[in-house]
UniProtKB/TrEMBL annotation:
PANTHER family listed in its UniProt record: HALOACID DEHALOGENASE-LIKE HYDROLASE (HAD) SUPERFAMILY PROTEIN, PTHR46649
Sorted UniProt keywords: Hydrolase
Gene Ontology molecular function, alphabetical: hydrolase activity
Alphabetical list of InterPro entries matching this protein: HAD-like_sf (IPR036412), HAD-SF_hydro_IA (IPR006439), HAD_sf (IPR023214)
Entry protein name: Hydrolase
């Protein structure tokens, strides 16, 4: 069936949480929370689904629901930071960096991929488990005008892989799920699109400098050039 819409994930697919310089070294004293350890902490905090190691059982439910409610997202992150020994003021500053659109970078081919879809006469949408408005980042990179619709978990009250979230995104784009291609980085979360009949392509959530053409390659593999 002809592809009439392409759905993109945001984190790890179109954009990645990255910043120049360290995340914590200018905020804390102590070698145990900087360098490779802080990189691993950021990686764990941005994993799309699943429990978080080191978080007590009574907070795991809040962790699972974090992308449905910005307040819950903040509270459960601060609880995690407290467990790894961050002072309260440092935890607040670190959290602010995680949700700062300025620290989210587009992959080298992200805007070009969106433009390729638009130029092919195909509708596009972003479907993301996220607790903040990504439009600031998209607008900064002249990408917002290339996207027809956003289905964000904290707005819609659903998180991937909930099949209804994919159905909703397709409905708003005016296509049947079978006419959509979902591109994401998580087999568990983004792979849920297959349950409603959509085609699915996966990319690796590598550092942006290490993944120059994966989105364009995924589109080309499905005949979108």
């Amino acid at each position: 069936m002809t592809i009439r819409a392409v759905l993109f994930d945001f984190s790890g697919t179109l954009y990645r949480l990255e910043k120049d310089g360290p995340w914590l070294a200018d905020l804390v004293d102590g070698e145990d929370l900087v360098g490779e350890h802080e990189v691993e902490l950021v990686r764990r905090l941005t994993a799309p689904v699943g429990p978080l190691d080191g978080l007590p059982d009574h907070l795991q439910d809040a962790w699972a629901r974090r992308d449905l409610d910005p307040a819950v997202h903040r509270e459960v992150h601060l609880a995690m930071f407290d467990r790894v020994g961050l002072p309260a003021h440092t935890a607040e500053a670190f959290y602010a960096r995680l949700v700062d659109p300025g620290n989210w970078r587009p992959y080298p081919d992200a805007v070009q991929a969106l433009r390729t879809v638009r130029d092919a006469g195909i509708r596009s949408g972003i479907i993301s488990n996220i607790p903040w408005d990504i439009r600031t980042a998209l607008k900064r990179d002249d990408a917002l005008e290339l996207v027809d619709d956003l289905a964000l978990s904290y707005v819609e009250g659903r998180i991937k892989p909930d099949p209804e979230l994919f159905r909703l995104a397709c409905r708003r784009l005016g296509v049947a799920p079978e006419e959509a291609l979902m591109i994401g980085d998580s087999v568990t979360a983004d792979g849920g699109a297959a349950e409603v009949g959509s085609r699915v392509a996966f990319v690796e959530p590598l550092p942006t400098a290490q993944r120059p053409t994966a989105l364009l390659d995924a589109l080309a593999a499905h005949g979108v050039r």
